[in-house]
Amino acid sequence: MDFDVSGPGTDNRLVEAAADGEDQAVEAALRPKDLEEFIGQERVREQLDLVLRAARARGATADHVLLSGGPGLGKTTLSMIIAAEMGAPIRITSGPAIQHAGDLAAILSSLTEGEVLFLDEIHRMSRPAEEMLYMAMEDFRVDVIVGKGPGATAIPLELPPFTLVGATTRAGLLPPPLRDRFGFTGHMEFYGPAELERVIHRSAGLLDVRIETEGAAEIAGRSRGTPRIANRLLRRVRDYAQVKTDGLITREVAAAALQVYEVDARGLDRLDRAVLTALLKLFGGGPVGLSTLAVAVGEERETVEEVAEPFLVREGLLARTPRGRVATPAAWDHLGLTPPNGAGPAQQGLFGG
User: Fold this and answer.
1) Residue 147: what pLDDT?
2) Residue 285 assigned ligand-binding role
3) Least confident range of 112-121, 142-151, 173-182
4) Of the residues 13, 224, 228, 273, which is catalytic?
5) Is 191 labelled as part of a ligand binding site?
6) Any known ligand binding at 251?
7) Which H or E element spans position 195?
8) Considering 61, 76, 226, 303, which one is annotated as catalytic?
């Protein structure tokens, strides 16, 4: 099959791991309520269970928790489970929403004892707020600055004990003083096909969708190791099955539905294939600079680098080298193309970035 390499567009990507309004609404209904019901992430679940049980046994507030990993793997769900396991309310906010220390002070001063504060994308919080958070996490107090200039005074404000749950997709951007203040750090791994099949069967039961084991396996294989994507694909395949067939999701129905939505057997969508096709057909497999590759597919440089590349690299279809982006032998095989003589990782770069 020959794919167009121009103007793929990234709006409403079916395999995008970020959550939109529809995903958030559905996730609320599908979200597990306790650790036992949570599928996958066995090591993190076991470790977190020990932390929470010990805190309950002591009658104390749970230690601060940092959860890292890609979007759609369950960090928000685990934060809600932490609050439920501790019998505490939860407050949800995000790093981009806290641009000033005063924003954080307002949130912290309104917390109740034992409350869980979930701070998503914690790496995007402003530096002044970040420095205030150090003291709040360690000493449960903040200094509120009143006035400006030489006459400014710091008024200490005592805070009730609380549990901060920070979530980040880029743990390396967190400064060491902030990382060190978390009592427990859990790294969320991408899911395997068997775990995703369990997620799909559970969600199908909650959504009252009839699905065969082979149908669930077909969807799981195209879900890019991410439960959120698996649930989104399940809903789209459900729509196809209701309109085109008797509503039962079989392997054939799932494959036909996802072909309509341009999600191939490996989970690549139109943007992913456009990047690979441009790299292979226009530049002989590379190396090619990122900016040049982005122009070839009609996208911004940041879109190619942050949206398409991570999955292609993880799948072993593309490699980042000092000379530029290079296609692997698996990329040629996946698109059914034959590499020209001399193409591949050993080829010398001719295209700048």
Assistant:
1) 57
2) no
3) 142-151
4) 228
5) yes
6) no
7) helix 193-206
8) 76
270-334 carries CATH number 1.10.10.10: yes
Annotation says 33 is catalytic? no
Given 13, 23, 45, 75, the catalytic residue: 75
CB 80 within 8 A of CB 201: no
Q: Is it the case that residue 9 has pLDDT exceeding 90? A: no
User: Which residue out of 61, 169, 226, 303 is catalytically annotated?
Assistant: 169
DSSP-assigned letter for residue 288: B
pLDDT at 21 over 70: no
Residue 4 pLDDT > 60: no
Is 325 annotated as contributing to ligand binding?
yes
Fold designation for 41-187: Rossmann fold (3.40.50)
Annotated ligand binding at 139? The verdict is yes
Q: Of the CATH numbers 2.170.130.30, 3.40.30.10, 3.40.50.1010, 1.10.8.60, which one belongs to the domain with range 193-260?
A: 1.10.8.60
C-alpha distances in angstroms, 257 versus 12, 196, 235, 238?
17, 18, 11, 9
Q: Would residue 228 show up in a list of annotated catalytic residues for this protein? A: yes
* 3-class state of residue 275 by DSSP: helix
* Span 95-120, pLDDT tens digits: 888 888 888 888 988 899 999 999 99
pLDDT at 209 over 70: yes
Q: Report the C-alpha gap between 63 and 48 in whole angstroms.
A: 10
Helix (H, G, I), strand (E, B) or coil at 30: helix
